[in-house]
Amino acid sequence: MAGDERLIDDIYSVVADPARWPGLLTTVSDRLGVLGGMAAYVNLRRGESMMEIGRLSPVFAKVFEDRHLANPWTKAMERVVPNRRVVMMSSLVPFSSVSRTSFHDDVLAPGAIVDGMSVMLPSLAIDGGFGGLHFSIQRRREKWAAESAQRLDALAPHLCRALEASIKLAPLMDGTRQLERILNLMPSAALLIDGRQRVRFANAAAEQLFVRRDGLSLDRDRRLQAGSPFPVEVAAFSQALSDALDVASGGDSRIGEPVRITRLSGNGSLLVVPVPLPPPAFELWKLADSARALVLILDPNARHKNTVRALQSAFGLTAAEARVASLIASGLNGPQTAKVLGVTPATVKTHLARSFEKTGTNSQVGLARLLSAMPPLD
């Protein structure tokens, strides 16, 4: 049918723009004659989920994720062998038993949902979880469920390919590679971590820091660890990473102050600044272990002394201007730089403006690029 041909074109076009998945799921739901649909991943063992929804209520989707992740339907789907074929929920669990649960009362009943169709993808059977596509059927459309399933069966191969392609393209489309190139220009240690606090990328300065194992190191799973002799610093470090990742996921945490890590060697303390990255354009990109936070690691007491001297010598910066320029180039923002140096943000702004003028740069990246090209003074 011409309509299906146009819909198939829409399905594959969404690969180039994953932000359009909610609209596509709505369009497919209309073609199937159902309430709405979702592309989702669920891991009951970890209590994790991620989803993109089309026309389904975001309010009840949040209730599902917060209170009813382990419900009769997901427990049944967890046992299904994923094969890209349509599975009816009513064939797995009698609706009479589902209707007696709080999952029904809180999630299904408000939308008059009595059945659903799922297509499970083998490629989403990750870490003990499962995922794929699901479409909700309302009571008024229940007698046409078989016809809806037949239509979905014809579209399923295309939807599955598009969903898998959308996830695989995440490293090319979420901006991580561009960010890695910028981090490589920074003279100070900088790295990217995923949602499980594993390091996905570290610039050369960070890798050298890990080799020395003086203040920060990596465990076997490349998770960042603090080596401070003070438990309060270790706890603050862990909390700062967790807060940044929560903000990156849309949570309510607040970003705190930079965390100081005392080094066992007696060298100057490290200053760790976790920065949440924008949420992914497509929720299931989280399955690709994409970067969720930027972590800047600075040594304010010792790391920048040579850089400060080099800036003074090469461009005629004052000591104060050079200190500000060095810290800004390392990734700190104005208020953070002010806190490190013990001056006001207005003073930092003035010194930075003069540094830009004297060095011929006009941005933080420009300063970082300039400093990376300068040989340090001995």
Question: What distinguishing features does this structure have?
Answer:
378 residues; alpha+beta; Beta-Lactamase; Arc Repressor Mutant, subunit A; 3 domains; 5-stranded antiparallel beta sheet; 12 strands; 17% strand; elongated
CATH fold label of the largest domain: Beta-Lactamase
Structural category: alpha+beta
Give the averaged pLDDT, no decimals. 88
CATH-level-2 architecture of the largest domain:
2-Layer Sandwich
Q: What's the Cα radius of gyration?
A: 26 Å
**How many strands appear in the DSSP assignment?**
12
Architecture overview:
- With 378 residues, the protein is of the alpha+beta class.
- The protein folds into three domains: 2-168, Beta-Lactamase (2-Layer Sandwich); 170-300, PAS domain (Beta-Lactamase, 2-Layer Sandwich); 304-378, Winged helix-like DNA-binding domain superfamily/Winged helix DNA-binding domain (Arc Repressor Mutant, subunit A).
- Helix content is 46%, strand content 17%.
- It contains 17 helices and twelve strands.
- It has helices spanning 2-13, 21-32, 58-67, 72-77, 89-92, 95-98, 102-108, 145-168, 170-173, 176-185, 204-212, 231-248, 305-315, 319-329, 334-341, 345-359, 364-373; strands at residues 36-43, 48-54, 86-88, 113-120, 130-138, 189-193, 199-202, 216-218, 224-226, 259-261, 270-276, 293-298.
- It has a five-stranded antiparallel beta sheet. Strands 7-6-12-11-10 form a five-stranded antiparallel beta sheet. Strands 8-9 form a two-stranded antiparallel sheet.
- β1 and β2 (48-54) form a beta hairpin.
- The chain is elongated, with a radius of gyration of 26 Å.
- The termini are far apart.
- The mean pLDDT is 88.
